[in-house]
Amino acid sequence: MPDDFQLVRPALIRLRQAAHSAGETGDRLTLRKKRVETLAKIRAVPAFANIDGLEGDLDGFIDPVRPFESDPVELFLNHLREMSAQVRTATIMHYLLHLKIPSAFTVDAVTFHTTDRWPQTPGPDASERPAASVEVTGTDPGEMALRARKRTEDALRKLRITAAGRMGIKQMLRFGLAGSWAFEDGTNSGFWLRDDAPVALDLADMAEWLQTAPQAARIPVDGRSQAQEQAWFAVLWLDKASLATDLLDRTLFAINALEAILGNKSAGLKAEWLIYHRILLGAKVSGWWTSPKPLYAFYDKVRSFAVHGSIPEVELVESDIDFLIADVRMALDDYLSLCASGGHTRRSKLLKDLRNSPEAPEVLAFLREHDPEVWSGWTPPGE
Predict the structure, then answer these.
(1) pLDDT at residue 124 is higher than 50
(2) Bridge partners of 94?
(3) H helices of the chain, where?
């Protein structure tokens, strides 16, 4: 077997061992970290660097439910051998919106130009369609188009920051990608829905939905208490999280929303306070006990890094962020329910009462049991 395969075999064996351990302990964060490390080792081998879909392949490789007819490590190595033979290089063209390109130019190997090719029937001005072309290497046309899209988006950002100081109208900076792409050799083409493209919502059932609307939809317009003002601030952050397309933005907005209702501005270790309050709130109001590890990672390894100008250490996964946002919405509903049932008009009094509630010792024990590395030596200061 070629040396390339021997380079990744030990990493695959360790990943399978980590998967087995996670099945017994439930420690999915350690498994995810090991998966990222293994993927990096595979990508570091030139023959495997441009194989598409390895992330999903590794998920199947570590799936404890999936049956394997033979050694899964050997099966994965054979898969790498087959896929490495399918690697190809192609030039992919993305169509653009709101740009005029009098003559072709290049930014970071992305060529901006006009084209008379169009996936649909071309109009009379087809030769003036703006486009950007870039060469990419891979095995899957769709994944290759996504990489070309990212390269093109990065080049567009450089155009935008260059033009920003010269344009007096900010709307002139809203040029970007259209929803279609094509291989220049004509072998593949496709469409995609832009992340910020709106999809019409039918409000036929809204009257019924409003009858069981969440507590946030009932925050009064006038005469809000300080606790309700904090809740409305959380609504504003959650709205941003719902509309944002960037995963880091969505994460930061969701954390900001949670801090608006459960944060402690005077606390030294803000992550611990926030998570302690979140689980206390769920335990007291709805009976929902959020897992502390993912929330701690979002705050300590994503939020804290990003706001201080560093690249977050945690891989951002869309499904995890969707769950985070849903959890924050639930926390907001519980917070407002407690405001109503307990007559709380100030956030600080609500949080103090939570910390003095009968559920507090049980929550602290829960935290120490589920994440002893963080919580074994932590006690609510002064309480």
Answers:
(1) no
(2) 132, 181
(3) 3-25, 28-43, 54-61, 72-84, 141-164, 206-211, 226-243, 247-262, 270-285, 292-297, 304-307, 318-342, 347-355, 360-370, 372-375
Phi, psi of 135 (to 5 degrees): -90, 130
d(CA 105, CA 132): 10
Measured at the alpha carbon of residue 274, what is the angle toward residues 224 and 296, in degrees to the nearest 5?
140
For residue 119, pLDDT beyond 60: no
- Candidates 4, 190, 178, 208; CA nearest to 87 is 4
This prediction has a pTM of 0.74
Cα–Cα distance between 263 and 275 in angstroms, integer?
Answer: 9
Average pLDDT over residues 301-317: 87
Determine the Cα angle at 322 with ends 307 and 15, to 5°.
85
107 vs 114: CA distance, rounded Å: 15
Query: Residue 183: how many CB atoms within 10 A of its CB?
Result: 18
Dihedral (CA of 206, 211, 212, 214) sign? positive
In angstroms and rounded to an integer, the radius of gyration of the C-alpha atoms of the chain is 26
- Beta carbons of 112 and 130 less than 8 angstroms apart: yes
Are 113 and 133 a contacting pair, CB within 8 Å?
Answer: yes
